[in-house]
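seq/struct pair 1
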Amino acid sequence: RRSSSPMLPLTIFSIRTFTVANLVTFVVYGALSVSTFLLTVYLQVQMGYSALAAGAAGLPITILLALGSAQVGALVSRFGPRWFLVAGPLTMSVGLAWLSTVGPGDSYPTKVLPALVVFAVGLVLVVAPVTTAALLDVGPHLSGTASGVNNAVARVGGLIPIAVLPALAGAGVGGAGLDPGYGRAMLISAALCGVGAAVAGVGFRARADISG
């Protein structure tokens, strides 16, 4: 407030699209971090996957992000981020709710993979639009600052829920293992995505062309 050239001018948070985009980033990336972390551990502890197999199980997410993010980014430039950031988190929540039902004995191709694909499709609809929204109205002189803040929010949004949410859900490795805390944690993550969709739907104004 007192510096003529602050590293982070607090007035940037008065920009509606920037603030809403960061709120969406925080809750959705929190859900993303918790769910991918817990799923990887669950596949090993409860379903007997090796560490390599559990890591490879998440490859569909990476592949779909690589294939779809550029295309979604091009569409955002035409239609704006609002409905992508409503549809994306809602789709992620469906995938997470599906993943919450995964258990020992379930087949990867018929149970885990379809849920991961649904989750990944939702994530593709989020990643480029939320970054675009964070930079939408800040102007060129603050674009670097806005990008840095959004990246920091994504990192913090991932760390805090990983530290807190599994414990609140009762996920542990003793007794019954990660069950039933795993399922509860995934459902909470799904609810977080729903919160992100609601914030986006209410917070962003409809816009047909973000270049205008």
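seq/struct pair 2
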Amino acid sequence: MKLTPQLWKWDGTNPAAAWLAQCPPDVPVVWQSRLADDPATQSGLISLLSAEERARLARLHLREDQQRFLAGRGLLRLLIGAGLNLPPERVEFNYGPFGKPFVAPCAGTPALHFNVSHSGKLVLLAFSPAHEVGVDVEEVRREPDLETVARQIFSADEHRGWLRLNPAERLTTFYQAWTRHEASLKAMGLGFIGEQDAALDARLVSFDLALPEGYQGAVGWLRQTTAPTRGVTRKT
């Protein structure tokens, strides 16, 4: 099963005003957008950023890195503002111990968990009013260290099976596993999974996302119960 993200368009035709009220209680909502390459749109997004965010944007030297940050953080502000009935430029973020941002508490507004990921020309944003959530997207491309990383995220049996696949299947399967792994880590707010995180691992749920050709993505979240779930794969 794959979850299909909601599509955000930069032409102003998005039905975003009531999106948070329509969030299902048990599954995160994922939004998908292309990078904003129109100068007027980019200027409007910059006007929403805080001073600290503008400084971060200025430190990025590559144009696509600037576009990814601007689209991700600008759209995040637009969606949170619409969902919580706040002006986008008034949305404030705090940061967890591993750098994961969250909405600063505000009187009268509901809790909202979120996560952002971008790769290539695509940006994904995942939201949940009930669960810690993580999302990851990767542009599918051949990398020289794929074999090394595969050994880290697959179990021994899975790695042997992966090596028996043809090159195209191997590439797709690798990115499926990698994005599930990253989305799950981000849902937990961690930089890595260790044995001390087994209780969190047991609560993880992850699903692949239906994305355009050439991209692979996944969303992960933490259930409130300890019911058996599908989580990340451990190497044995």
